[in-house]
Amino acid sequence: MAKITASVYTSHVPAIGAAMDLGKTQEPYWQKVFAGYDFSKQWMKDNTPDVIFLVYNDHATAFSLDMIPTFAIGTAAEFAVADEGWGPRPVPKVVGHPDLASHIAQSVIQQDFDLTIVNKMDVDHGLTVPLSVMFGERDPVKGAWPCPVIPFAVNVVQYPVPSGKRCFQLGQAIRRAVESYDQPLKVQIWGTGGMSHQLQGPRAGLINKEWDNAFLDQLIADPAGLAEKPHIEYVREAGSEGIELVMWLIARGAMSDVAGTGPAPKVAHRFYHVPASNTAVGHLILENQ
Amino acid sequence: MSLDKPYLDVPGTTIFDAEQSRKGYWLNQFCMSLMKAENRARFKANERAYLDEWAMTEDQKQAVLARDLNRCIALGGNIYFLAKIGSTDGKSFQQMAGSMTGMTEEEYRDMMISGGRSAEGNRYVGEDGDAQAHRQPQGKAGKKESA
């Protein structure tokens, strides 16, 4: 049977990807950001999964205002890297896992979560920046990501985004779906986006270190309590784009302690830094025990 | 029954809800078109003519031509869509976000390096934080005006 071995949480700031693509990682400004991922790159080498289930949001890239799915699962064999307006990032295409993705889609829908199934979708920085920070630079043509990735896009662009509670319950459904897959695959689930940031209006640039760190503490120790936090608190305390953090609750909900089948996860790594561009960078690795 | 909008009392912030989305539909769809290199080239060659191909209001077109992102947002634009205009202009997200505060690029960058904008005084309309309406524009631009 497949199982979820660990969850990874990270911001997906586009400027972090741009810093890697433009060879700026050694500049003092960026060194402080990338230092937080040194451990993670080694950890990824030591703990490469068979598949990554990657929760992220599309930033008006694959989904315009024509269609706004709340939860969309990518079931394609591969996903092209999007041109978001600056030209596509020079990173490898993303290879999917159609069989597991379709299995999860069927299982999760039968658990009453009405997912949108997507067979053609370009992926933007929300998905590729987490891969870059965790795996390091990869040649766009000769290189490849070390394992297949199932993209899972959440609407956090148009209000209302799904509640933290719904996201947390969805994570639990995803765990049950993975565990009912009859191949012995090691699956990691990643929750991305955040932490505090606001990209619009006179309040742009808002950062709330205390709130972010309390969020990390509670995500580790009391995710069910954290899932009760209403939208408005994210907006008021962590900025209008800080709402992306609800996606971390999907990954956290998929851990075995939530299901009561395992102890609290091991905190393998924790990192927090301000700023990367407009954003507070948060990063956690939790291992199922 | 009207929709519950608990976010209207957050200063300096417009939540992109269904109403904003309806208002800004063509503005945002115009922005989406800039994801194609050939459309970016056509837009740059003659911005007004390109905008006239879209069912946008005159106010929306003027706001785009002026690169007034706050105005674009008031007229239904969403930052992730509007970012396509910025990328067409070769601007980063930080330059775009900073432009909405009145601060210079350097002032905004320095604010971020020193830990970003505090939430203190910026949680509710009517407090005295730097994002409140009575304290706009910020940075040197604001000082100039009050002098």
Structure explained in plain terms:
The complex is a heterodimer of chains A (289) and B (147). Helix content of chain A is 35%, strand content 20%. Chain A is α/β, with parallel strands linked by helices and 289 residues long. Chain A has a single domain (3-287), classed as Protocatechuate 4,5-dioxygenase, Chain B (3-Layer(aba) Sandwich). In chain A, a hairpin with a 2-residue loop joins strand 9 and strand 10. Chain B is mostly helical and 147 residues long. Chain B folds into two domains: 18-92, Protocatechuate 4,5-dioxygenase, Chain A, CATH 1.10.700.10; 101-118 and 125-146, no CATH class. Chain B has helices at 18-23, 25-33, 37-45, 47-51, 58-65, 69-74, 79-88, 93-99, 105-113, 139-146. At the A-B interface, helix 1 and helix 9 of A face helix 2, helix 6, helix 7, helix 8 and helix 9 of B.
In what range is the share of β-strand residues of chain B? under 5%
Which structural class should the secondary elements of chain A be placed in? Answer: alpha/beta
Q: Kindly provide the radius of gyration of chain B, computed on alpha-carbon positions and rounded to a whole number of angstroms.
A: 17 Å
- How much is the average pLDDT of chain A? 97
The CATH superfamily label of the largest domain in chain B reads: Dioxygenase LigAB, LigA subunit
Along the chain, the helix and strand elements of chain B come as HHHHHHHHHH
Poorly predicted tracts of residues of chain A: none
- Give the SSE order of chain A as H and E letters: EHHHEEEEHEHEHEHHHHHEE
* Unreliable stretches covering 5 or more consecutive residues of chain B: none
Measured as a percent range, the helix fraction of chain B is 40-55%
Quick one: which chains have the greatest interface? A-B, 46 and 61 residues
Helix content of chain A: 25-40%
Number of helices of chain B: 10
Overall, the morphology of chain A is: globular
Share of β-strand residues of chain A: 15-25%
User: Largest sheet of chain B at a glance?
Assistant: none
CATH class of chain A: Alpha Beta
Number of domains of chain B: 2
**What separation lies between the terminal Cα atoms of chain B?**
47 Å
